[in-house]
Structure formats: C-alpha cells, structure tokens
Amino acid sequence: MLLQPATKREIVARMLRNLKGIYLQTERWQRLLAVQQRLVIALPGGIEEVRDRGFAYARLDYLQPALEALERYIKVRPDAEDATAVEAELQELRQRTQND
User: Fold this and answer.
1) Residue 47 contacts by C-beta under 8 Å, 6 or more apart in sequence?
2) Which domains are present in the chain?
3) Segment 38-88, tens digit of pLDDT
4) Residue 28: how many CA atoms within 13 Å on its side-chain side?
5) N or C: which end of the chain has fewer CB within 10 A?
6) How far apart are CA 42 and CA 94, in angstroms?
7) Which of 60, 13, 51, 11 lies closest to 35, judged by CA?
8) DSSP string, the chain
9) Residue 99, pLDDT above cutoff 90
10) In the structure, what pLDDT confidence band is assigned to residue 3 with cuts at 50, 70 and 90?
C-alpha cells in the first residue's frame, strides 16, 4: 500500500481537531465553538462534528442552536453508541428552554 499525500482539506481538518482537543481540555468553550463551526464546514459529511458543535453551544447556553444540532445528529444516527447520552442532553436542554 502506497502512502498518499494528504489533501489541503485533510491537513486543515487535522489542525482543527488538534485545536478542538486543546480547547475541550481547557474548557475554552467560545474558542471550541469557533473550531467546531469550521470543522462542520470542512467536513460536511461529519455528523459527529455537528453533534460536538451542539455540545459546545450547550456549554455556552446557546440553547436553541444546541437543540437543533443534537436533534439533527440523532435524526441521522439514531443507533449511535452515544445516542443515550445525546438524548439525555436533549432532555436537559428542553427543560432549560421551558424554564427561560
């Protein structure tokens, strides 16, 4: 098997994922959201990036965008391994939107 050079998109995605890890570890939610926005654009088929953007929105109390992102993820991947955790987050977000 020959190694193929990485595309520019793959290189950018790798750099963004590295930043994602750093910002997630240091709980820098606003910066994480900015990275997630770019990952969703760079990887249009990456529904997991939509999910992660939803979690970033939730951490920043952007409740409606968080709901929309996580609902989209569950709609596309209803049998995902993390579906139970995502559903729990959705339930909490729905309660929070009703209390506001």
Assistant:
1) 72, 73, 76, 77
2) 8-99 (1.25.40.10)
3) 999 999 999 999 999 999 999 999 999 999 999 999 999 999 999 999 999
4) 11
5) N
6) 29
7) 13
8) ----PPPHHHHHHHHHHHHHHHHHHTT-HHHHHHHHHHHHHH-TT-HHHHHHHHHHHHHTT-HHHHHHHHHHHHHH-TT-TTHHHHHHHHHHHHHHHHH-
9) no
10) confident
